[in-house]
Amino acid sequence: MTGVTRTPTHLTQGGTTDAGIGASTLRPDGTLKVTGEFAYSSDLWHEDMLWGFTLRSTVAHAEIVSIDTSEALAQSGVYAVLTYDDLPTDVKNYGLEIQDTPVLAHGKVRHHGEPVALVAADHPETARRAAAKIRIEYAELPLVTDEASALAEDAPLVHEHRDDHHFGHVPHPNIVHRQPIVRGDAEAAARRADVIVTGEYVFGMQDQAFLGPESGLAVPGEDGGVDLYVATQWLHSDLRQIAPVLGLPEDKVRMTLSGVGGAFGGREDLSMQIHACLLALRTGKPVKIVYNRFESFFGHVHRHPAKLRYEHGATKDGKLTHLKCRIVLDGGAYASASPAVVGNAASLSVGPYVVEDVDIEAIALYSNNPPCGAMRGFGAVQACFAYEAQMDKLAKKLGMDPVEFRQLNAMEQGTRLPTGQEVDSPAPVAELLRRVKAMPLPPEHQWVTTEGADVRALPGGLSNTTHGEDVVRGIGYAVGIKNVGFSEGFDDYSTARVRMEVVGGEPVATVHTAMAEVGQGGVTVHAQIARTELGVEQVTIHPADTQVGSAGSTSASRQTYVTGGAVKNTCEHVREKVLELGRRKFGTHHPAWATAELVLEGGKVVTDGGEVLADLVDVLEGAAVDLELEWRHRPTEAFDLRTGQGNGHVQYSFAAHRAVVEVDTGLGLVKVIELACAQDVGKALNPLSVVGQIQGGTTQGLGVAVMEEIIVDPKTAKVRNPSFTDYLIPTILDTPTIPVDVLELADEHAPYGLRGIGEAPTLSSTPAVLAAIRNATGLELNRTPVRPEHLTGT
């Protein structure tokens, strides 16, 4: 392994045990990142490495007539060119749940940008130029681009020979998965309603837009295996998919997490992992692959675009009577996480409200559009956009305040969801709305200064398009519900290895998990947990790799709950082992060793009354305690395929937003002035990180409200804007003030009472912004993102 940069290195965070849970300890990688010293996966280097490049399809749906690689192979500096025919085993597909994604296209391509061939060369530009010399002849096929073309009787089948376990219960082969939820009698309830509102909503395709592109380094091993250093969200899931394609046992595919520059769901699927390994094993040399931004847009899945039709009814006093809805998600060419996204969209489609009678259907389509899968919010985002628009429509029709209407119908602990599951932990929906409404509003005409208008605070900003004329303020509210953790019967567990020993004359705990640190701050929290449970100052976080058991994915707001729970559980068992050592060594010296409740605190063994019995250095002298244990949360169950009934989720999280916007009605420009949030977090293990996660999720919700959308040409199914020049994300100039009110109502079923927090603020921020724009303009606005032409009618 000489010459390989292993990143990140061991992260050791000193301090006192006051830096345990509940403290805003700083991230050990924070300073390195803001100073540009942190090593990301794109910084990996080996002195004799080659560079890999992926050639992608230029059309969205076509038969591959022929591939000619001769010119590419003849180019100086090229070591290998691989196509489907060069794959080493009969396993040629992969996938998170359904193995329908080809490693390299064979016979046909199903979307624009699908990988077709690989090149390894001694320089990245040489690899690119060689790939450009590969000649591919395509015979284009009819496209499937929307619901109508996907479900027509004579629709082309995106996958002709399906045999996955969802296929038996879908009404059309171009439907990946279907989940109905039926409870009560929605038709009868509709007849009792005094008012009924309907709406059809469109949610655009959002990109995760992480700043660190897909990248990694594969190094062939002397034993015929391979070492892969990569930025990912789930090491063991990658391993499960990679090893069969390579024809290797899993223990010969050794994976180490490298520095990850953001993820948000986009690294849950494979990108360059198998490609780099194939090239390394073929050439016998290390191979590095780094996507540029154009490639990155094609190298990962996106958020599902959706069309949603909703009908709600209410009595004249404001109580909801029923919900009928149909949600159609476009999953693109391959399944990815679509089945689970469908389950989330269906089960959370009612929102955080009490509705007894529902008729819900959610489906995901196969199409020739770009593949879609996991992204922060995971199906609940699209639903929240629709049901919150419906709440505003109902409130307006009833002449009620929109916040009070929501509070009147808000769920609480003990509410049964449309799936029949009881919410068995705090659900402070009404309280969150009260808190966010009570926050002070930003001043009117905040752009006015003694020297004139500050255009930075106006719609259009520094483009100087207005000095306040035609600018109207709007205020909007929204609240959402998001599940935490993997659902529907998935065996959601994590593993933690904890070692406690004396190093340099003081007790040190080492925590080793396979958790992917993608920016969420898990390495900080794990150290805090170890300090709290083991009473030590020094905690070392071992690099994440596959030499320890799976930690599951860094997604679904689950890592602090599940891997944090695993670290807590293992630390507790280590603590007991340490106390057993102490009892054997010193038990005869003091009766409290046998009679008192003992804790580890400040590097000592202490009774619950505060009496010191021994130093941990003395207890651990000449010994080490080392345990690796799995930990699981409560089991869930699959939703019934006919009725949708079932205890599908382990926990729920809630957030509410108030948006304040200024709209230039003449030009259709929007400036979001403030996005206030109130969120229940159960227990803030690191309050600073909690606020950062809430503000980050809020900003991503802002992005899809007013600017972010991958544009796919409906005639060609080609992506029109695969760059940060044309795909816009919020910058610091677009991001408003985000005041946060953190509520801590413990969930007794979760470690420390915590609640997963990362996704909930992404839900309600988008509809709050849309509600504020509607409030300012009086327009209905049933799609996202809102563009100037939607406001001006041009």
UniProtKB/TrEMBL annotation:
<feature type="compositionally biased region" description="Polar residues">
    <location>
        <begin position="1"/>
        <end position="16"/>
    </location>
</feature>
<dbReference type="InterPro" id="IPR036856">
    <property type="entry name" value="Ald_Oxase/Xan_DH_a/b_sf"/>
</dbReference>
<dbReference type="Pfam" id="PF02738">
    <property type="entry name" value="MoCoBD_1"/>
</dbReference>
<dbReference type="InterPro" id="IPR000674">
    <property type="entry name" value="Ald_Oxase/Xan_DH_a/b"/>
</dbReference>
<protein>
    <submittedName>
        <fullName>Oxidoreductase</fullName>
    </submittedName>
</protein>
<dbReference type="GO" id="GO:0005506">
    <property type="term" value="F:iron ion binding"/>
</dbReference>
<feature type="region of interest" description="Disordered">
    <location>
        <begin position="1"/>
        <end position="23"/>
    </location>
</feature>
<dbReference type="InterPro" id="IPR008274">
    <property type="entry name" value="AldOxase/xan_DH_MoCoBD1"/>
</dbReference>
<dbReference type="InterPro" id="IPR046867">
    <property type="entry name" value="AldOxase/xan_DH_MoCoBD2"/>
</dbReference>
<dbReference type="Pfam" id="PF01315">
    <property type="entry name" value="Ald_Xan_dh_C"/>
</dbReference>
<feature type="domain" description="Aldehyde oxidase/xanthine dehydrogenase a/b hammerhead">
    <location>
        <begin position="35"/>
        <end position="142"/>
    </location>
</feature>
<dbReference type="Pfam" id="PF20256">
    <property type="entry name" value="MoCoBD_2"/>
</dbReference>
<dbReference type="GO" id="GO:0016491">
    <property type="term" value="F:oxidoreductase activity"/>
</dbReference>
<dbReference type="InterPro" id="IPR037165">
    <property type="entry name" value="AldOxase/xan_DH_Mopterin-bd_sf"/>
</dbReference>
<dbReference type="InterPro" id="IPR016208">
    <property type="entry name" value="Ald_Oxase/xanthine_DH-like"/>
</dbReference>
